[in-house]
Amino acid sequence: MSLPPGFLDELRNRTSLAQVVGRKVMWDMRKSNQGKGDMWAPCPFHQEKSASFHVDDRKGFYYCFGCHAKGDALTFVRETENLGFMEAVELLAREAGMQMPARDPRAAEKADRRSQLAEVMEQAVQFYRLQLASGAGAAARDYLDRRRMSAAARERFEIGFASDARQGLFQHLTGKGVAADLIVDAGLAARPDDGGAPFDRFRGRIIFPIRDGRGRCIGLGGRAMDPNARAKYLNSPETELFDKGRSLYNHAPAREAAGKGAPLIVAEGYMDVIALSEAGFAAAVAPLGTAITEDQLRLLWRISPEPVVMLDGDKAGLRAAMRLIDLALPLLEAGQSLRFCSLPPDMDPDDLIKAQGAGAMQRLLDQARPMVSLLWQRETEGQSFDSPERKAALDKRLRAAIAQIRDPSIRGHYGEEIKRLRWDLFGARRRDSGAMPVGGRFNGRRWIAPALPLPSTRSSLLAAAQGETVEELLREAIILATLCAHPGLIAEFEGALELVELHDPDHESLRHVLLSHGPVSDVAEAREKICAAAGTALEKLMALSHVQIAPPVRNVGDTELARMCLAEEFAKLEARRGMLREIEEAVEDLDGLVDEGLTWRLSQAAAARHRAERSALDDATDLGEDRTALSRHLQSLIDGEIWVKKTR
To answer: What job does this protein perform (predicted)?
Structure first.
């Protein structure tokens, strides 16, 4: 509803902020001046011993010099009581003796009708509670005793019992003058198809009252005592009061507990919520036996920015979580998400707490996983990615899922995390798939291990390989060092960096750090984070003399130079390795006969190499190596006709 002009100003004028805040804090009277309305206290929003929380009662504002919390009486009530805006207005208006603005006649009539239904619901709750305490409720009490539900818990959650009588509640309420239409419209009774007298909806069940955020009873939940009942749990039907998809069991108590810092836990049912609350996890709610709806999800986020969804440890629980992910992705906002924790198989919260105690439940909550982790599990679990097509299909599914996120910042962070997980999956497979060993040389059939370096040269990069492999390691080092010095270029060369084959374990480690880094907004800050994450691998790289003298490393402010050098080094490295692959395959194909196709392949490899070299930058960006040495070697192989079997 809308408030008339001036209503909030009048409310603030009538409300003493010092009085409202004084219910939550202990004033420091040595520092405060009560006569001037200048009050000081330890801040109720963060833990502190000094009085840094200031209230100016005359102006009606508060401010904390520690955590910088600020606002007026409405803000304070909303933050400390975890209430919505209109709920806070109504609370302060009642305390100030102000009448809330009248609604239009239709709205007022509807509100009166809802108030009548709510009163009928309260009478039903009282009736069912008395039934539980009577002789008819003995079996229900025995069941609750077996479930170890204490008398205090029964009282707190107002547990009741509906007997098997067809019209037990209906006759009780009509006997008190309640109209039959109200009983039916409240969802407590139903009319038979033959037009006879209404009969009770809840029979032979333990009753759980369902209350809204204002504490009004809007519906009931009933657990059948008969194990053969058609429905183990039954909720009230949709009424003017009760909308199952917009309600949560234990809403108001959970909201209050979450406002005091307790984690909001989303459990499956009534008994789970009660067990969690009794174990000290007061901010527990349940979605009334259905999959969580969009309205319920928004309601959860109004209570807490990051609810923890507690899943059953079976496949059905996991499927429910996967459906919830698709619902939540388009609604995500900064600081607003979900976390998930899975119960052990064949256990509910009550079983876990009884068997292992509240500490086990707390450990489970501490291990709750972010939503992106469940998304990755859904798309990869139980699948094989042994072909490029299957990997591409995974990429397509992940892109489609992330595209649902409307917030561009969150979408970017999801992309970075998925990229990291993808690298962990496929990078590990590549490392385990028998990649070429570091160093050594290929003699046409196998790799020959390099000679061991002397102790004095063991730390040198040149000791990691022999002959022509050194050139590749040097280029790898320049590429990685340049990207570390210019992190703003990581995104531009991400694809090339991910695909290039690295021969040194330290280089693999640095690549992982670079690919795991998120979008760069501050280059200097990003450079520091990369240095911290890379550790000794980067220190060893930067200690190499040929890296220290490389122009893009020396000139960290020249991004264009770095971009040109990276493009050159990637092109030359790929051209060289493509040529070597052709040579290796060609030599293996030799069978003592001249093959024109073989000659053509060797010439094409040499041409590719020369094209890459012709596109190189000027000598200012050169590494100082002999650019034509390998080309001369290749030409000598062709001139010597290595495919002709030599006679002795």
So the answer is: RNA polymerase that catalyzes the synthesis of short RNA molecules used as primers for DNA polymerase during DNA replication.
Cα separation, 549 vs 161, whole angstroms: 83
* The residue to which tokens 């880094």 are assigned: 517
Identity of the residue numbered 287: P
Residue 403 lies in a domain: no
The per-residue pLDDT for range 86-123, each reduced to its tens digit, is 888 989 998 888 888 766 566 556 667 888 999 999 99
- Report the number of distinct structural domains present in the chain: 4
The range of the structural domain enclosing residue 234 comes to 105-242
Q: Which two tokens stand for residue 542?
A: 């930067």
Question: For residue 160, what pLDDT is reported?
Answer: 96
Which positions ≥6 away from 421 have C-beta within 8 Å? 376
426: CB partners within 8 A, 6+ apart: 385, 391
In this predicted model, which residue has the larger pLDDT, 623 or 82?
Answer: 82
What is the pLDDT, as a whole number, of residue 288? 84
Map tokens 């094209």 to a residue. 611
CA angle 141-146-152, nearest 5°? 60
Q: Looking at 188, 207, 242, which one is the last position of a domain?
A: 242
Mark whether 236 and 139 lie in a shared domain: yes
pTM: 0.57
C-beta of residue 410 within 8 angstroms of C-beta of residue 332? yes
> Residues 642-647: contacts with CB within 8 Å, 24+ apart?
642/587, 642/590, 643/586, 643/590, 643/592, 643/593, 643/594, 643/595, 643/598, 643/599, 644/592, 644/594, 645/592
pLDDT of 376 strictly over 90: yes
Q: Is it the case that residue 623 has pLDDT exceeding 60?
A: no
Alpha-carbon span 310 to 348, nearest angstrom: 9
